[in-house]
Amino acid sequence: MQLQDQVIEEIRKSLDIVDVIGNYVQLKKQGKNYIGLCPFHSERTPSFSVSPDKQLYHCFGCGAGGNLFTFMMEIEGMTFSEAAQSLADRAHIDLGPSVSKKNAFRNPNDQKKKQTIEGLELLTKFYHYLLTTAKYGSPGMRYLEEREFNQEMIERFRIGYAVDRWDAVTHLLQKRNMNLQYMSDAGIIAQRGFDNKYFDRFRNRIIFPIFNMRGQPVAFGGRTLGDAKPKYLNSPESDVFHKGNILYGFHLARPEIRKRSQAVLLEGYVDVVRAHQAGVTCSVASMGTSLTEAQAAALKRIADTIIICYDSDTAGIEASFRAAEMLQGDGKVIKIAKMPEGLDPDDYIRKFGGDRFKSDVIGASQTLMTFKMNYLRRKRNLSDEGDRLLYIEDVLRELTTQRRAVERDHYLRLLSEEFSISMDSLRKQLQQMTVKVQRRDKKRMRVAPLVSSNRIPPAYEMAERRLLARMMRSREVSDRVRDSLGGSFTSEIHQALAAYLYAYYEQGNPPDEGLFLQKLDDPALQRKVTELSLMPMSDQVDEQEIGDCINQVIKHAKASLIAEMERQRKESEQSGNYEQAARLLSEIIDAKKKLSQVQAEHD
């Protein structure tokens, strides 16, 4: 084993895949394995399985699978070398030049991303240094003190200050031989049109570094201290910064979210800093934009309860509804924290204090249904009989989406008590509305193309899969299959997997699905390995089972050969080549006799 392979294997054995994946997915133990919602596709019931014994993961819904390295590459968009470095740092292992050179940033775009993040890390330190140095940072520090941000939060969020100069950052980047074009693409500096010289985009601003899920700086948000427009200047989208994939403060809030299984969703980064200072350290923000599917998925993976705390104006309420729509399902509890009109979390905490925010806003958050009922109530004049009936219909329509009978009954009882309507009448009306919704949904399903994801594999395919699964767990089984079948598997991916297995054992490697997967470069083969590795099978090898599977594959191969010869014979007859047709018929009869013998031996 080469040195680089030894280091990779050391990393694989030093880390627990459950701990690593558990930072991204909420996992629950089920038998020997752990299950959770797949981070790679949207699903309502968990089909994502992680095996601590094999150090592998596999989704039985979308087919994603692999080991620690492939998971980090998929979830974070890393190259192999980036994933290896990230995991080595976690395991406190020196990767060394032998591995870092392997597969390291061969794509020019990977090199650009690496250097851009290095430049942003340098500038994060530089801006923070400027803020905390009295000679340069007094205007910024004075503003933060007036806004009552404490030193702990300044350090925690690595807040900085951009001095009121046109070339402070540009000069530093040039001095450190950073690629100025990369930093211009990231929106940190820009070029003047008349002489093409670079200048700083952020000047006389408080700098809020924006971090990706791994805690690396990928962008900046700058709040002006003067009259410059815009008031808040943000980095544009770039190779390293995709706003829709990032939740501000997520890397800091993740431990508390996992601990409490609860997240608080805010709108802006100032709100997040203020909330953390108030002790609500499970707070994140969607960066002032509408919540995206990627952001919602990240929250749903690690939290059972999500509290949405947006502004209470019309835009904030509509944004809350949109976010709730994305977050609900999968058994998640969605709540809405109601802010007083005209205040955001930053304003509220400064005015009333952190304890009031925790108890009167976050602690008093309403269930989504209660929030909807209050919202619908505001749209109706309940002293008017017609509006009362419309309000009741509005609420019943919302209740058709409630899956839990207890919740439906609870809200029906509230309606019954408030408007003196019998429970029976309300239940009957709700039932009628639910039936209409179900009919509509069924009609849509009939119109939509039907795609079955639960295909039952034919017997020969199942036989090949079971053989390959056994082969990965036993060299003796692999040798027996090689002698009996060689590469005569039906599908190309099974043929390839068998060939790699034969070579793997010839090199003296032990039966180890994780090690075998690590030696494969093809993602399709890696996914197939994890799928087969997590097939439910007994630990004991049944000789009869192996024999039956081998015979099933042989029978199918012979039957396929006969079918092909039958096709050729018909073509020969149709073209008038009766001599060839007769020869093929003789071969078909001989092949059928052999197939009958195989069947007789098997029976």
Automatic annotation (TrEMBL):
Gene Ontology annotations of biological process type: DNA replication, synthesis of primer
Function: RNA polymerase that catalyzes the synthesis of short RNA molecules used as primers for DNA polymerase during DNA replication.
Listed GO MF terms: ATP binding; DNA binding; DNA helicase activity; DNA-directed RNA polymerase activity; zinc ion binding
Record keywords, A-Z: DNA replication, DNA-binding, DNA-directed RNA polymerase, Magnesium, Metal-binding, Nucleotidyltransferase, Primosome, Transcription, Transferase, Zinc, Zinc-finger
Highest taxon listed in the record's lineage: Bacteria
Gene Ontology cellular component terms for the protein in this record: cytoplasm; DNA-directed RNA polymerase complex; primosome complex
UniProt organism field: Sporolactobacillus inulinus CASD
Name of the protein described by the UniProt record: DNA primase
